[in-house]
Amino acid sequence: MSHSVPNPAPPLGELAARVERVTKSYGTGDAEVRALDDVTVGIPKGRFTAVMGPSGSGKSTLMHCMAGLDSVTAGQVFVGDVELTRLDDKRLTRLRRDRIGFIFQAFNLVPTLTALENITLPLDIAGRKADQAWLDTVIDTVGLRPRLKHRPSELSGGQQQRVACARALASRPGIIFADEPTGNLDSRSGAEVLGFLQSSVRDMGQTIVMVTHDPGAAAYADEVVFLQDGRIVDTMTAPTSEKVLERMKGFDLPKVVSE
Ligand SMILES: Nc1ncnc2c1ncn2[C@@H]1O[C@H](COP(=O)(O)OP(=O)(O)OP(=O)(O)O)[C@@H](O)[C@H]1O
Q1: First and final CA of the chain: distance in angstroms?
Q2: What does the alpha-carbon distance between residue 221 and residue 234 come to, in Å, rounded to a whole number?
Q3: Which InterPro entries does the record associate with it (predicted)?
Q4: Does the pLDDT of residue 249 top 80, yes or no?
Q5: Distance 35 CA to ligand 1 centre (A)
């Protein structure tokens, strides 16, 4: 996948989300697994951040805790200036609905609804009216105008994921979380979706956090956060696939023991 950079990324500024000293454990006693171990990280507004690391390093757990889909064992999570870790279930559900967008590996579209109905579904559920001009911009950017009346089964995988991207963008959420968004796509469709995610950050000011295994996908981001064993071990600005691949290779090396 090539790394296209239409505009330089904006300077670092405010944070769209942050976690402060978050620990997440599954199980107790001998069976305890520390999926996140005292993690502190900020997600800058208006930028595209990739989260990488070996399998089991805690990427999905970090994203789920940040998005309020999972609770933390200790520490605090903020989206904008709201502390998620203090909200009851009802408020958390409302915050997720109003301020967060999601894109998953499995597109999670409703099969009986058309592309357009899928795109506006979260707004409809929230009882909000779509901003038509914004909706038109999103639909044209993802190139779905000729397919709006089609149902998911009549669309290619790439088109279905573009519907999911448009759905995430439709409400202009403060932050979008994408979990392996290109995991089910061939490389050409994957590149289209990544290019679109990148332009929604560069041209529309969206904030995106994406978990990925693919150094080529991470290269579309403005920065990469590397996790290992539930801890953040490195960050990289202006990544290229080569630089990310090189860094990932380091995770496979046995630890050097000093004598
Ligand atoms: N529900 C659960 N119960 C017990 N352990 C869990 C649970 N979910 C995750 N874990 C453990 O927490 C650790 C981190 O898992 P996580 O799914 O966040 O890693 P990941 O980096 O996303 O992995 P992958 O790249 O393979 O998807 C792993 O050791 C995993 O086995």
Answers
A1: 43
A2: 15
A3: AAA+_ATPase, ABC_transporter-like_ATP-bd, ABC_transpr_LolD-like, MacB-like_ATP-bd, P-loop_NTPase
A4: yes
A5: 6
Q: Identify the residues whose C-beta falls under 6 Å from ligand 1.
A: 26-27, 33, 35, 53, 55-61
Contact 208, 201 (CB under 8 A): yes
Which residue's CA lies nearest to atom 1 of ligand 1?
Answer: 26
Residue ID of nearest Cα to ligand 1 atom 10 = 35
Segment 29-58 shows an average pLDDT of 94
Q: Which CATH superfamily is domain 46-58+87-250 in?
A: P-loop containing nucleotide triphosphate hydrolases (3.40.50.300)
What is the average pLDDT across 234-239? 95
Looking at the CA of residue 58, tell me the nearest atom of ligand 1.
18
Contact indicator for 42, 15 with CB cutoff of 8 Å = yes
What residues does each domain of the chain span? 46-58+87-250
pLDDT band at 253 (very low <50, low <70, confident <90, very high): low
Q: Is the pLDDT of residue 238 over 60?
A: yes
Report ipTM (2 d.p.): 0.96
What pTM was estimated for this model as a whole?
0.88
* 101-124 b/e (C-beta count within 10 Å ≥ 16 → b): bbbbbebebeeebbbbbbbbebbe
